[in-house]
């Protein structure tokens, strides 16, 4: 098993960890391990922002937008002036 050291941990965070550990009957190390396991059990999100937004609002059915047709020809820009 690997070990890690966490430096520069806020005193308030350490105190909350100590209290949670005591309430749950664990050592601070065990409580930290449990917190890390729970946090990392969630699947990583490999989707981009637009895909995540679309998935979140997919239940609403979405909307269809009418896109204008592009009949105009491309205009060239002149820098002659």
| Total of DSSP H or I helical runs spanning 4+ residues | 3
Runs in which pLDDT lies below 50 for 5 or more consecutive residues are none
What helical percentage do the residues reach? 40-55%
Order of H and E elements: HHH
Count of distinct strands: 0
> How far apart lie the N and C ends?
72 Å
By helix and strand content, what is the structural category? mainly alpha
Strand content: under 5%
Task: From the alpha carbons, calculate the radius of gyration and give it in angstroms.
Answer: 27 Å
Summarize the main sheet: none
Outline: elongated
Pfam families: FitA-like_RHH
Organism: Pseudomonas helleri
Protein name: Plasmid stabilization protein
Domain Antitoxin FitA-like ribbon-helix-helix: 2-40
């Amino acid at each position: 098993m690997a070990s890690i050291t966490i430096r520069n941990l806020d005193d308030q965070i350490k105190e909350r960890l100590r209290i949670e550990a005591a309430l749950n009957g664990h050592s601070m190390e065990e409580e930290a391990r449990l917190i890390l396991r729970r946090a990392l059990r969630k699947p990583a999100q490999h989707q981009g922002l637009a895909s995540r937004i679309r998935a979140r609002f997919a239940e609403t059915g979405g909307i269809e937008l009418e896109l204008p047709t592009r009949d105009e020809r491309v205009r060239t820009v002149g820098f002659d002036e």
